Request: fold
Amino acid sequence: MAETNRFEFRETISGRKLFSTGTATDITPVVTEPNDVNFTGKVVINPDPLCLKSLRVIEGLATTAEILDGTANFTELKMPDTVAANTSFTLPTSLGAVNSTITDVLGDGVLSMEVNPGGFVAGGPFTTDNSMVRVDLVSGTKNIQQSLWVLDDSGDVQLSGADYIHTKGTAANQFLGIDAGTVNTGSNNNGFGNSALTACTSGNSNNAMGRNCMLSLTDGDFNTGMGDQCLASLIGGFFNCAVGNNALVLTTSGSANVSVGNEALFTNTTGDNNIAIGRNALKNTATGDSNIGIGFNAGSALTLTDDNNICIENVGVVADSGVIRIGTFATHGSCFLAGVGGITPAGTPEMVTMDETTGEMGTSGKLVNDYVQNLSTSTDNAIARFDLATGKRIQNSMLTIDDSGDIDRSGSSYIHTRGGVNNQAVGIDAFSTATTAVQCTAVGCEALAATDSNNNTAVGFRSMFQSTTSENCTATGVIAIG
Reply:
C-alpha cells in the first residue's frame, strides 16, 4: 500500500477544518467537519478567496501540495520524505502577481496563508525607522506604502523629519504643528500651529494657537496667544493675552498686556499693562504703559512713550499722557452717564464747563452761584451751559438728562442703562431699542442697536447692529457680527 500524507485545512480565525472528500488531485475546501483525510500523490487546493487557510502536514511521506489563487498563480509545497514534529516550511510572500501573507495565527505551529482575501498585503521596502504606512487604493493593487509620518516609542509623531504631534517637556505639555514646541523643557504648555512655541526652553503655562504664535518665547510664563504670528517676538514676558493676527507681534519683553483685534498693540515692544480691544487699537504705542484703547483705531494716534491714557472710540492725540477721551466729537452727538442724577458731590461744588469745539471738559474754579444769573432755556431736562460772552447766562445744550439719569444728544440716546438690569450703553443709539434685556454692554454708535437679548457685549461702530436674538455674544470692532 502506498505511503500517505495526512492534511488539515483550517480557517485561520475560527480554527474550523475546511475541506471536502473530493479527489486527491483537486480539493475545494468547504465548511465541514469530517475526520482527517489521507492523500497520496499531488494535492491541488483552490482556497476560498474570502477565507484565510491553514495547511498542515501531519504525517506521511513525500507529497506535493499546490495552493491555487483562482488563476494561473500557485504556491507549491514539497514535503520531505519524512515529517517530524515542529517541522517548518518557508513559503514565498506572494503568489506571482497576487500577494499573500504567511502567519502562525493560532500559535499552534500551523502556517496560515492569506491569499489576497481583501487585497491588503505588505509593501516596501521601507527606508525610515518607525515610519507609518498607508494603503494605496487608487492604483487597484491596495499595496501598503511608506508615508512621511514617523511614530516613535513615546507616542510622538514626526512629519517629514520635523516634530508634529508631541508632548516634549517636563509635564502636561501638548504640541501640534510642524516644529511646534521642539525644544520645550517647561510644563503645562500648549502649542498648536506650525512653529508655535518652537523656541520655548523653560517657559510654563503658555498657550499658543496659530502659525508662529510665541515663535521666540524662551522662558516667559502664563502667556496666551491666538492668531497668526501673535506674540511672535515675545522672549520673556509674562501674563500677556493676544487674540488676532499680528496682535502684540513686536512685543519682546512686555508683560500684562491685553490685545484683542487684528494688529492691536501692533508696535508695542516693552510696554506693560496696556489694554487694546479693537482693530488697530493702540497700534503705535511702542513703549507706553497702562493705556486703554477700546474700539476701532482707539488710541491709534498715541505714540512711543505715551502713558496712562483711556481712549474709547477715540484715536487720541500725540503726546497725550493721563488723558481720558471718550467718543469722537464730530461723530457722537449725545452722551449718557449713569450714576450722575440725584448725586450731591462732597466738598464745595464747582461748575463743570465744556469746550464745544473739542469736547474737553473741566471745572471753572467758580462756585455754582457765581454763574447762575438768569435762565435762557426752552428744552425740558436740558443740560445747561454757560455763555460767558453774554453775561454767564444759562443756555440750552444739545444734551438732555432724564429723571433716570439717561443722557440724550440731539434727541438720540447717548449714555444710558435702558432695558432690564446691569446694562450700560455709550454711543449714539447704542442699545437704543432694549426693553427687557439684562447684563448687556454696548460701546459705540448703534452698537447692539436692534437687540433686546441678554448677556451681550458689543464694542465698536454698529457692532452687533443687526443682531436681534443672539445671546451670550462678544463682538469687538466696526460692524463686528453686524
